[in-house]
């Protein structure tokens, strides 16, 4: 049985949240997910939607997803950020991840973005090898920098 990739619907968000949670566990951050399925529905399907999500299905089961959103580069213009791409552990190695990756790249091309970007953990060798084989460029001179909620509040309090 082959898989299908389609744009996610609001009813898919509980399954998407399960995948996000599985990814957090895989990335050794099991308590990092703070959102719920309703947050995904509100943020992805409202009037001012913040993301687009693609799901991979086998039969009627969602087994993978890729979530993207637009960014703007002052150097390049319209960009697409791939936030998460995950396939359920038991369905890896069947081409589903590549199918989702291909869909993201097609979507970026259709939307006329000037680049697609994402981050990958330095220990995720399988993903790194896959991205390398796809022709992606690794920017090794750049650091990923974040200001999480607690740090943001602390910083703003000092202003």
TrEMBL record:
GO molecular function list: N-acetyltransferase activity
PANTHER family: DIAMINE N-ACETYLTRANSFERASE, GH14572P-RELATED
PROSITE patterns to which the protein is assigned, alphabetical: GNAT
Keywords: Acyltransferase, Transferase
Organism: Dokdonia sinensis
Domain N-acetyltransferase positions: 3-157
Spans through the membrane: none
Family: Belongs to the acetyltransferase family.
InterPro entries: Acyl_CoA_acyltransferase (IPR016181), Diverse_Substrate_AcTransf (IPR051016), GNAT_dom (IPR000182)
Domain of life the protein comes from: Bacteria
Name of the protein this chain belongs to: GNAT family N-acetyltransferase
Keyword Ubl conjugation recorded: no
